[in-house]
Specification:
By secondary structure, the chain is α/β, with parallel strands linked by helices. It is built from 14 helices and nine strands. The model has no long low-confidence stretch (mean pLDDT 88). The structure holds adenosine-5'-triphosphate. One of its GO terms (molecular function) is ATP binding.
Length: 348
């Protein structure tokens, strides 16, 4: 496990996936937050049900761990339809998609995760399938090649992407509805945690829930993961007996998250290494992504897609055309003094 995994928004193991499965909300009413998206989906599903037709195709866009897979499952569940799950990387040829589409039962919901990673040839086949529930299958090669049309059962496509900007316009345009999922605020994360604690039958203090909520980067997946670590800590270290054995208080949260090196802002060791090098070695920047990555011994891709978005979101880092720059808030948070300035930002 790398240093960053505890607050990585990607699932870390099979055990975590099983744990997540148990905590997944099954209905829109149970799904916490994303109020606007929930309202929009509700309307779309009710309208389809009143007209007795398959709901429009839905694109779910947003960072990992915010509930895209959960919403796809809810769409199927709430509209009383079965769900087929696939992903962009599994569809590397048009034939893979043809096999999948032609095996759908009428009305089925097809979920394609990471849809931006599907093969180009499959994307083109999907345009027609989404629009007319039909595909053209090419038979033969060269001058003798012919295309055979194949009718499909009507279906609802739910596509999920972390990179909506990478989807070609013709594909994006064929979704009847696009939902942009936002990071959750602390109050919503507390509700996610409260619900998880109830389902896991954990005894957790209010203050402990609020503390975890403030450290999970606006992401329910990370919230549930931190709760799991804190639960383990409390189980091993609390001296309570009977009903209160394993009860989670603020002390357990502080101790467990210190053990896992997650600070009060949700920053972990890698985040802090990036910021400290930027501040101390490069005097706050600007410095290029690759130089920064080499300096902390990490892949540029990890720094760019996992570390930076959060540092930017909480206002510690900005990306400029000349490179990465630390903000005044970063100087304050790390208590580092800029060369030629006092700790309070005044010029010497
Ligand atoms: N709004 C929510 N309310 C309660 N729990 C949630 C919510 N959103 C997500 N979760 C929890 O977070 C976990 C991760 O959610 P999910 O797998 O749906 O994220 P995702 O956006 O599909 O992530 P990825 O893109 O990495 O697959 C789920 O198991 C679920 O328990």
């Amino acid at each position: 496990m790398s240093d960053h995994d505890i607050v990585s928004p990607a699932p870390e193991s099979e055990a975590e996936l099983a744990f997540e499965g148990a905590l997944r909300p099954r209905s829109l009413a149970e799904f916490v937050g994303q109020t606007r998206v929930r309202g929009q989906l509700q309307l779309l599903l009710q309208a389809a049900s009143l007209q007795n037709r398959t709901p429009d195709h839905i694109l779910l866009a947003g960072p990992p761990g915010l509930g895209k897979t959960t919403l796809a499952m809810i769409v199927a569940h709430e509209s009383g339809r079965s769900l087929r799950m696939s992903s962009g990387p599994a569809i590397q040829h048009a034939g893979d998609l043809a096999a999948l589409l032609s095996s759908l039962v009428p009305g089925e919901v097809l979920f394609i995760d990471e849809i931006h990673r599907m093969a180009r040839s499959a994307e083109e086949m999907l345009y027609l399938a989404m629009e007319d529930f039909r595909i053209d299958i090419m038979v033969g090669k060269g001058a003798g090649a012919t295309s055979i049309p194949l009718d499909l059962a009507p279906f609802t496509l739910v596509g999920a992407t972390t990179r909506a900007g990478l989807l070609p316009n013709p594909l994006r345009d064929r979704f009847g509805f696009t939902a942009h999922l936002e990071f959750y605020d602390d109050a919503e994360l507390e509700r996610v945690l409260e619900r998880a604690a109830r389902l896991l039958e954990l005894d957790v203090d209010r203050g402990a829930l609020a503390e975890i909520a403030g450290r999970c980067r606006g992401t329910p997946r990370i919230a549930n993961r931190l709760l799991r670590r804190v639960r383990d800590y409390a189980l091993v270290h609390t001296s309570g007996s009977g009903d209160r054995r394993g009860a989670v208080g603020l002390d357990a949260v502080h101790a467990a998250l210190e053990l896992y090196d997650v600070d009060e802002l949700g920053l972990d060791r890698l985040d802090r290494a990036v910021m400290k090098i930027l501040l101390e070695r490069f005097d706050g920047g600007p410095v290029g992504l690759n130089t920064l990555a080499v300096s902390v011994g990490e892949e540029a891709e990890t720094i760019e897609s996992v570390v930076e978005p959060f540092l930017v979101r909480i206002g510690l880092l900005t990306r400029t055309p000349r490179g990465r720059v630390a903000t005044p808030a970063a100087w304050r948070h790390f208590g580092v003094q800029r060369a030629g300035q006092t700790l309070f930002g005044d010029d010497l």
